[in-house]
Amino acid sequence: MSQNVLALLDAAVPLWAMQFRSKSLEELQQLAKEQGEVLALCGPAQALAGGPFKPGEAAAGFNALAKAIAILSFWPGGITLFGQHWENQLENYELWEADLPNELDATGNGSVDPEHSGGE
Description:
By secondary structure, the chain is mostly helical. The chain has helices at residues 3-20, 25-42, 44-49, 57-72, 93-96; strands at residues 79-81, 84-86, 103-104, 110-111. It is 52% helix and 8% strand. Helix 1 (3-20) crosses helix 4 (57-72) and helix 2 packs antiparallel against helix 4. The longest helix has 18 residues, at 3-20. The relative contact order is 0.16.
């Protein structure tokens, strides 16, 4: 990955994380899904390699990547990607911490341990 892209991510990810701090778990899940769709359309390999793109695709792909990293940075322990580590905490983290999946499968679906869940 280019040092320029890493520098841009270092700037963009915290800005998106600030925008997302007050979101609920459901809102973050929807945002994550939307970013995945954008990355799928723009082609993440294309986005990381630098082209070729239609007008606006590079920016859309970069922002989707930065938003996805920002969203994942709220997961306990944060996310390490491209040799960088991002970690943040949501404003309402305590309200949904117990409902976080214990594990994620390959599709991103998780399972919640009922013993440690905030629900029944």
